[in-house]
Amino acid sequence: MNLAFLQPLYDHEGPWASIYVDLSQNAEDTAHQRELAAAAVARELAGRGADEATCAAVREAVEALRHASDPHGRALFAHAGQVVLDPPLARTPPGGTSADWAPLPHVAPLLELAGEDPVCVVAYVDRRGADFELRSALGDRDAGGVTGRQWPVHRTSSADWSERHFQLRVENTWEHNAAEIADALAVCQEETGADLVILVGEDRERRSVHERLPKRLAGRVVEAVHGAGSRLLDEDVAGLREDHVHARAREDLDRFLAARAPDDAGRAAAAEGVPALVEAAREHRIDELLVIPDGPDTHREVWIGEDPDQLAVRRTELRTLGEQNSFAARADDALLRSAVATGAPAIAVTPALPDEDTPDDVPVGGLGALLRWR
User: Fold this and answer.
1) Partners of 270 in the beta sheet?
2) Is omega for the bond preceding 15 within 30 degrees of 0, making it cis?
3) Domain ranges of the chain
4) Average pLDDT over the chain, rounded to whole?
5) CA nearest to 248, candidates 166, 149, 173, 349
6) Architecture of domain 267-371
């Protein structure tokens, strides 16, 4: 996940209210239930020491969602009487609506709840051309298409020489159209910035286009087993997106597992465990942060100063570094603040189920990082 959208949260000092609102339930009394939830959230924050202005801003923002049609939920981050950021969620908060009050915004759940929701281009391919459709969390829209040669496009069954010649022309037409579709689809992907390309159509047409797509799209193209005239249902696209996200996360985890092996000089290209990650964050060496949600070290207490690279395992370390004002914070949120400051992405990874063969298939404590240099 690119974390740049979180930057406004670190332009101000804390403390912060972090609320994850569950909007997945819809019934006749939904609006009333959400008003009750808004009041409960405000009371929860007040009980944790939040100022009156921030409690009021949060209550108003949650009440404003009483008629919202978001399918999953919304995150709200408020400070000094103002809601600074309110991203939609791609997944429903597992524990329902929750509220937190802490020196740093509690953004770690976003890695899973608002995490990768890849934009995709769906290409409906046939022998005559293709229609393109852009699918994203913001909805669907037409993305153009391409029309190839219209004649001849069908085979015959005759063995006559002239018919064989005709069939050769059919083959040439197919090849020409597949190349044109692939070229247009590559341009569409580049212009839209789509993370995923889904090919829909008969087997031969899908394969012909797939083979002609540029190498830069390798790993971003999947084929859906649907007839050329069908339209992919939302659940079909959601499933393919989810598979793509899991595959990318698995690739990142595999890269991390390979990178943590030391070289001949005893240096590794990855770090894990809170002390090592804190040191890497202070030196701006984190290239990508890996977080296993609810890992044992994600909520471990570290100490932070006003600047993102001011963090330490012990409070006395910050004083040694010259920071007089220090606050206790969750390790995952402190490391994410540092990642935002240095432009490093982060990803939520789910390890393989533990067994005798894969006891070390996870970052220690649930937190790891690929480093910018050894």
Assistant:
1) 370
2) yes
3) 4-113, 120-232, 267-371
4) 84
5) 349
6) 2-Layer Sandwich (3.30)
